[in-house]
Design a protein that fits this description.
265 residues; alpha/beta; Rossmann fold; five-stranded parallel β-sheet; 13 strands
Length: 265
């Protein structure tokens, strides 16, 4: 089976697999695209444009990477000695090219305070990482007339992958929150879709109401919708409540994913 340039192998591997960095390039001042390769990448599997990839990083800079060698990776991970246990984080597959055995993952940078951001800042060709295929959630029902895609920069890989995969006639409205114009990227948007960038300015990520304000001013099309909402947990909850309570969209037609949560410092 092939989706665009992405093929799905029936023999997908159900355990963490080893990959290494091919390239690390900046897309914006706060976003890096890291290309990975590996002998088993062609058996990673792919279910949709918001496909979850769990990444496994060495427990400390310069340490050796050990991966749990089991489909039951979580118990295997917890059984590993703490000094060997890798750090696990969740990301989205931005591109999977089975023929070339390559995968792109986009990393939002927020300094070196978090292990994934710190790794992405310095990742160089040959550096090792573990990846595990863990499915996708984007699934518009067959009777969908139009789609609403809402998120912040952590949902940027999923939303842009959705837009690029949509047939030209599909009606879609995308709202993506970023810091400023310098955080926008080029996106291949089909003729039936519109993409609006929302700038939160100096307000910290997770603390802005720019998304819900834009939604309240938005005239929604007629017909049966499907909404995909992802990003900071409180923003996602607010948007879902607005869509279901104020706009009357059925809950089962709104996917919402809290990719991260703003915490007080």
């Amino acid at each position: 089976m092939t989706v665009g340039t992405i093929a799905v192998d029936a023999g997908i591997i159900r355990r963490p697999m080893l990959a290494e960095v091919v390239a690390n390039r900046p897309l914006t001042p706060h976003l890096r695209r890291i290309t990975l390769t590996g002998a088993e990448i062609d058996r990673f599997g792919y279910d949709g444009p918001d496909h979850l990839v769990r990444i496994f990083l060495a427990p400390a800079p310069g340490a050796e990477l050990h991966l749990p060698d089991s489909a039951q990776w979580w118990p295997a991970l917890k059984a590993m000695p703490e000094e060997l246990r890798p750090v696990v984080r969740n990301y989205t597959v931005r591109r999977l090219d089975v023929a070339r055995r390559e995968m792109d993952i986009d990393f939002v940078l927020h300094g070196d305070g978090g292990p994934a951001s710190a790794w992405a800042l310095t990742a160089a060709p040959g550096d090792r990482i573990g990846v595990f295929s863990d499915g996708a959630s984007y699934a518009p029902p067959a009777d969908t007339d139009w789609q609403l895609l809402v998120g912040d920069e952590t949902a940027l890989p999923a939303i842009t992958a959705v837009l690029e995969a949509l047939p030209a006639h599909t009606r879609a409205i995308a709202l993506i929150e970023v810091g400023s114009a310098e955080d926008e990227i080029e996106v291949r948007t089909p003729a039936g879709a519109t993409l609006t960038w929302l700038h939160r300015g100096d307000t910290p990520a997770g603390g802005s109401d720019v998304v819900i304000r834009a939604l309240r001013e938005l005239a929604l099309p007629a017909g049966t919708p499907y909404a995909f909402v992802a990003g900071e947990s409180a923003m996602v909850t607010t948007v879902r409540r607005h869509l279901c309570t104020e706009r009357g969209i059925a809950k089962e037609r709104v996917y919402f994913g809290g990719y991260w949560k703003l915490t007080a410092h």
